[in-house]
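Hi team,

As requested, here is the filled-out complex form for the phosphoric acid mono(formamide)ester run. I kept the field names the same as last time so the parser does not choke. Let me know if anything looks off before we queue the next batch.

— J.
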Amino acid sequence: MKNLLSAVDLSAEEMNRILDESARMKERMRAGETDTPYAGKTLGMYFEKPSLRTRVSLEVAMHSLGGSAINLEAPAPGELWKRESIKDQARVMSRFVSVVSMRTYSQAAIEEFAREASVHVVNALSDFAHPTQALADFLTIREHCGGIAGKTVVFLGDGNNVARSLLAVAALGGARFVWCGPDSHRIDAPFVEKVVKKRPDADFDEESDPAEAVRDADIIYTDVWASMGMESEAEAREKTFMPYQVNARLLSRAPGRARVMHCLPAHRGSEITDEVMDSAKSIVYDQAENRMHLYRGLFSLWAGDWKA
Ligand code: CP
Ligand code: NVA
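And here is what came back:
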């Protein structure tokens, strides 16, 4: 597997291999074992949008494997590709670094870069997808729920990049995925069709009533209501999405086993309340930590010249 650009491109075997290797690397790190397959090698990071978790976990992961990282930050949206074409940047970067991570607005930019690059490219979030987030999240779900198959993951909120990627990984792992939110912000039909075409047994539901949606939830998941780049819509979205807030009242409608996840950053008091974020039901920080273990797992497979 040369690139990781969208979770919907993965096979179940590839997904399991990434999760297994990430779990193995997590154990090794916790046991104080050191692996340095990237000694003398470099990760090139493109960031067109802000980041805390992705930026830091990528860099820490690469350092922990013996390598170093270089950050190329866009001064403003779209600036990354103004000075020089994507094609030329991809070809030049391939002469310097071993892996490129990209956080961009446009998924097409990542795909073009990956086509032209001869090194591994990983999507670190686009407007369309956030595959390493979803993979790390299912590593967390596996740890907290004892597996993925048959578990019910309920996503409340915007059917955007994170929701799409979670749906794709849920389908690969045999989890039930329930989306709940306003009709106007559903996961787009062409994407759902693509997932179902690839995995005809995908267990996907849409539910408009939040209390009904969480009735059998193992995981209750939410994301910001206005993603990066949608700031001008934030006020309108507050009103549209408020009925889908993850709060203590909603949690009281879910089974006792249900745990709460959020990719973060969270807007406390909007999509999730303080009482839920700070409760024993919340596993958001375990989830954040796993971003790093996931990158260690992925990089470790790539260092081994993973051809799967
Ligand atoms: N969840 C996530 O990708 O966080 P950052 O935007 O801080 O990287
Ligand atoms: N949907 C959010 C995810 C942030 C990690 C965004 O794109 O801003």
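Two things worth flagging: The chain has two domains: 7-129+290-303, 133-287. Residues 133-287 form a domain with the Rossmann fold fold (CATH 3.40.50.1370).

Thanks,
J.
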